[in-house]
């Protein structure tokens, strides 16, 4: 598979200002040097505890928020160098599905209005019956009846609302969709339906997904590869089956030890991490995980471990791997 997206040393720092004269006192390093690649047609899951920078990474890649530093190469285009007009055109290729469709859909707009909006922005020549047909087609593609196009978001269930959010993201035939916890607000039975739909759509339209999630059982089901984030950095990136069978980074090992497995013989000893995730305002020096790592040594407190290839296709950022 070829590379669709390459992210190098991506940073998003939020300045902190305090006091009467709003003096700059530091920065929250929400994303602090993320490196990853997304291959054409795959689903790359991005996992980690809340606050590790997953959503910020997704939004910064699409420039829904402006990155502080780093490189984003999408299909040969340097996304950070795009001016407003070129970025607007690029948005037809890179879309986002949000966690809470209720918050991301305008409650005053009917489904028709919501789904017509991308066409009005990017294909203003489309109108009348043709536009109506496109909206109907989009609704059918995500399993909704076009007869309900005149309804408002509150008239739909949570799962149906997420289908509307997916239809909106697909309107312009994107190549790449960042899905930010797309099913975590839904009941488990509905989750499976929406995930199944997303997999069908991926196959049908050749989509590439970045799937942000904290739910490892969902990640195991849907992803080809996984990037594990801790305090604004990717600490391990590996094929899903390898990561679940043989996690390398001590943080990944701890995450994996909490996943229930059906076969008790395969159960790993539960690794309980001490302490909380440190503040991204003041991350620990050296390896940011050293304050909680059960195997940290002296070098861990001094040197930042680089994300490096451990075996073909597997990368980890740890001095001891
Ligand atoms: Fe633990 Fe050191 Fe590896 Fe960081 S570099 S994960 S502290 S062993
Ligand atoms: Mg999030």
Automatic annotation (TrEMBL):
Domain ABC transporter: 5-256
GO molecular function: ATP binding; ATP hydrolysis activity
UniProt keyword Disulfide bond, yes or no: no
Transmembrane segments: none
Alphabetically ordered keywords of this record: ATP-binding, Nucleotide-binding, Transport
Pfam families the UniProt entry points to: ABC_tran (PF00005), oligo_HPY (PF08352)
SMART domains per UniProt: AAA
GO BP, one annotated term: transmembrane transport
NCBIfam families the record matches: oligo_HPY (TIGR01727), PRK11308.1 (NF008453)
Membership in a protein family: Belongs to the ABC transporter superfamily.
Protein name: Dipeptide ABC transporter ATP-binding protein
UniProt source species: Paenibacillus sophorae
Origin organism lineage: Bacteria, Bacillati, Bacillota, Bacilli, Bacillales
């Amino acid at each position: 598979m070829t590379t669709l997206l390459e992210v190098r040393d991506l940073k998003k720092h939020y300045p902190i200002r305090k006091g009467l004269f709003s003096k700059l006192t530091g920065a929250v390093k929400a994303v602090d040097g993320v490196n990853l690649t997304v291959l054409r047609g795959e689903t790359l899951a991005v996992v980690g505890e809340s606050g590790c920078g997953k959503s910020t990474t997704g939004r910064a890649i699409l420039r829904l928020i402006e990155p502080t530093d780093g490189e984003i190469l999408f299909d040969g285009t340097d996304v950070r160098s795009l001016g407003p007009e070129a970025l607007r055109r690029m948005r037809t290729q890179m879309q986002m599905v949000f966690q809470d469709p209720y918050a991301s859909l305008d409650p005053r707009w009917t489904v028709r209005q919501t789904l017509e909006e991308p066409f009005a922005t990017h294909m203003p020549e489309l109108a009348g019956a043709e536009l109506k047909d496109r909206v109907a087609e989009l609704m059918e593609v995500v399993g909704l009846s076009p007869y309900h196009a005149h309804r408002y978001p509150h008239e739909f269930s949570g799962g149906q609302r997420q289908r509307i959010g997916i239809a909106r993201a697909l309107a312009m035939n994107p190549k790449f969709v960042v899905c930010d916890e797309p099913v975590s607000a839904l009941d488990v039975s509905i989750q499976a339906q929406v995930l199944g739909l997303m997999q069908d759509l991926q196959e049908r339209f050749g989509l590439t997904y970045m799937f942000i999630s904290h739910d490892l059982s969902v990640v195991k089901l849907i992803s080809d590869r996984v990037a594990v984030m801790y305090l604004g950095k990717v600490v391990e990136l590996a094929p899903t089956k390898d990561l679940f069978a043989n996690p390398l980074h001590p943080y990944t090992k701890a995450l994996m030890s909490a996943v229930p497995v059906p076969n008790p013989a395969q159960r790993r000893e539960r690794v309980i991490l001490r302490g909380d995730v440190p503040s991204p305002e003041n991350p620990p020096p050296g390896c940011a995980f050293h304050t909680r790592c059960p195997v940290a040594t002296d070098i861990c407190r001094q040197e930042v471990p680089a994300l490096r290839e451990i075996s073909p296709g597997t990368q980890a950022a740890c001095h001891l791997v």
